[in-house]
Amino acid sequence: xxxxxxxxxxxxxxxxxxxxxxxxxxxxxxxxxxxxxxxxxxxxxxxxxxxxxxxxxxxxxxxxxxxxxxxxxxxxxxxxxxxxxxxxxxxxxxxxxxxxxxxxxxxxxxxxxxxxxxxxxxxxxxxxxxxxxxxxxxxxxxxxxxxxxxxxxxxxxxxxxxxxxxxxxxxxxxxxxxxxxxxxxxxxxxxxxxxxxxxxxxxxxxxxxxxxxxxxxxxxxxxxxxxxxxxxxxxxxxxxxxxxxxxxxxxxxxxxxxxxxxxxxxxxxxxxxxxxxxxxxxxxxxxxxxxxxxxxxxxxxxxxxxxxxxxxxxxxxxxxxxxxxxxxxxxxxxxxxxxxxxxxxxxxxxxxxxxxxxxxxxxxxxxxxxxxxxxxxxxxxxxxxxxxxxxxxxxxxxxxxxxxxxxxxxxxxxxxxxxxxxxxxxxxxxxxxxxxxxxxxxxxxxxxxxxxxxxxxxxxxxxxxxxxxxxxxxxxxxxxxxxxxxxxxxxxxxxxxxxxxxxxxxxxxxxxxxxxxxxxxxxxxxxxxxxxxxxxxxxxxxxxxxxxxxxxxxxxxxxxxxxxxxxxxxxxxxxx
Length: 576
Prior knowledge:
- With 576 residues, the chain is mainly beta.
- Among the domains are: 46-251, Immunoglobulin-like; 257-355, Immunoglobulins (Immunoglobulin-like).
- Helices cover 0% and strands 48% of the residues.
- The chain is built from no helices and 48 strands.
- A five-stranded mixed beta sheet has the order 4-11-10-6-8, with no helix packed on it. Strands 13-20-19-15-17 form a five-stranded mixed beta sheet, with no helix packed on it. It has a five-stranded mixed beta sheet with strand order 22-29-28-24-26, with no helix packed on it.
- A hairpin with a 4-residue loop joins β44 and β45 (517-520).
- It is rod-shaped, with a radius of gyration of 42 Å.
């Protein structure tokens, strides 16, 4: 509440803006630490040749029965690298048949299929596949004069082992007509309908049926794998024929546990949401990434909610190896353990840290000398700082500060004051009297070192001749935030003592870069203080003060320059 004070008469010749040093604490930059990304899987080292079927009729051209598969050292199917793998093929006896001389296993594929053309001469030939950097593979194909008396079905799965990758593996299941001796046989009168079934659809499936065309000995269908590794028996049946079957196996890392990774492992202790920095991965027993055979619901919990919490639950989708979650930090720095659980999997955990200057002490900044005018002033502030004197944010719940004035004849303070969570300072309400002098303002809070500062009041004398600019507190965190009222502009006389504005007030003028116009903020009658917001981390070429760029604002805006006083433009160094 304002009290009655004496009016002042304006005598003005020139207004000068002066800036004290404003500093900005910027942590030293550190070079980024290099990281290593590791990919896992089956590394291809050799070629394997499969023939499906292994025995074919003589005299038939371009039968796509040759399969070349990339495998690792343990004979597990392996994916071709970028650019694919070019494979050369040869037939050891071209009088029996010839093979396509080259085929490419495309990037990301495990095998390729190509043709063999048989001659009229029955016999055997060794098909060899070779590629630079890989061990060669081979298999023997047999050609015979076909029978015309089919009695049974034979099933071939080639390659017999495939990745469990939820993919369609074309032409990998072959159904062949055979006679009683196992010789390939033709049905010369009509096509032969065949019913197919998979004993374990969880591992993979085949089409429900296929027809072996008239005059052919076999037909091929695709195998549709899933993300669940395992084995399944493919059975072929047809009326009047003995059924046949073969086993198809799919392999993949089997997920058995959860692993959590935090990227980055530490974040600023700011009350905000850090999106997708918690990674939960499915792994096999050896710690390799493993795809989810079905959607996996993962529950997440933070051991220390004072530091931060985590979004839960999250879902690792079918065929995925991981999912991400958001981390919601607070203003309290520290560590918390993030735990992940899911039914059927071993749990995992990781530590997330939040960092910030840790407030350990209170510092009182008294601000400029005040007039002993029986008014309430909000110029002193109390700031939280760490041990090095850097501004530090109040933790969750804020900090309640008890204030006292050693000389109530000069002025009193309102107590307590709360520095809100996430803030570094709070303005002190100082109620001056008509008695000039000094008083020690002391700030105390549980768990923090006590701070104090001396507030000085004087009897106002003379006429205003200049403006003084202060930053209270003098240090702020450089984080792109809006700091309310740390900039104080004061009317002073020639000796630097505070002087109240005369009747009609005074309007200092400053530049607004957003609209390229002059703004006016009035010192009203009986005032000698204006306070402004500071926008940390913003860029403004017109007012640069020791690395901090800011707008000066007040609630009293006027878009015209008054003719009764000089217009003052604030330049980069703060002079007019």
